[in-house]
Amino acid sequence: MAEQPSAPKTEQGKAASDQNDTETSTEGQQTTYTEMATSVAGSAAETATNAADDGAPESPEVHFEPVVHLTEEVETKTNEEREEQTFKMRAKLFKFDRDGREWKERGTGDMKLLKHRENMKTRLVMRRDKTLKVCANHYVVPDMKLTANVGSDRSWVWNAAADVSEGEPEAVTLAIRFANSENAQLFKDAFESAQEENRKFFPKEEATEGKEPAPAPTS
Question: What secondary structure letter does DSSP report for 67?
Fold first, then answer.
């Protein structure tokens, strides 16, 4: 039988054949690019690993000693370690300014009477809140006289011939004010009791020179 000639391709069939050839070519190019990228990345990783293994030094362990050890406690001495507290009451203290003829506030805090365990002398000490700075420090001598402040039943005024709260002994006039009259009376009783105990240790002292101060603040 005679061989039949092949039918000529239509325009549609030719276009489909050309599209298939193009897709096959594109897929082949994408595969080639992927293989090349994988090969390059693998080579770079291997090179970096070899460099790290061959020449990179190891980081040394660094240790620093602390400058201040927070666990260590610093002992603060107040010179009250050898004394027994016989009285303690919160109050506000004033000092009379002789030059300005006016009262100035010295601070608010705990007023204490402290009796030394060895020489048995009693002194009055008061420190300001928070700062603990001394604002009154003198012996309770027999010649001191507590005077009720004018217009107040919770405040007392007295003269101290040698207060050392500022360092050097100084003659001062002080006034102290308590929260109520009951606390003020408790202070007076403890103060006068300390005077009696100190009587054998202190000779009679002259009264502090100067005019009588104006009444201390009452509020």
Answer: S
Number of H helices, E strands in the chain: 2, 7
Maximum Cα–Cα distance across the chain:
161
Q: Which tens digits make up the pLDDT trace of 115-147?
A: 999 999 999 999 999 999 999 999 999 999 999
CA torsion sign for 114, 145, 207, 213 is positive
SS3 of residue 70 by DSSP: coil
Other beta carbons within 10 angstroms of residue 123's beta carbon come to: 20
Report the distance separating Cα 128 and Cα 60, nearest Å: 53
Taking a C-beta distance cutoff of 8 angstroms, is the pair 57, 142 a contact? no
DSSP category for residue 28: H
Angle of CA points 61, 67, 69, to nearest 5°: 105
Q: Looking at this protein, which amino acid is placed at residue 89?
A: M
Quick one: which H or E segment has residue 99?
none
Q: Please give the Cα distance from 63 to 111 (Å, whole number).
A: 50
CA atoms of 191 and 197, how far apart (whole Å):
10
Three-state DSSP state, 166:
coil
Distance CA 218, CA 153 (A): 9
pTM confidence score: 0.62
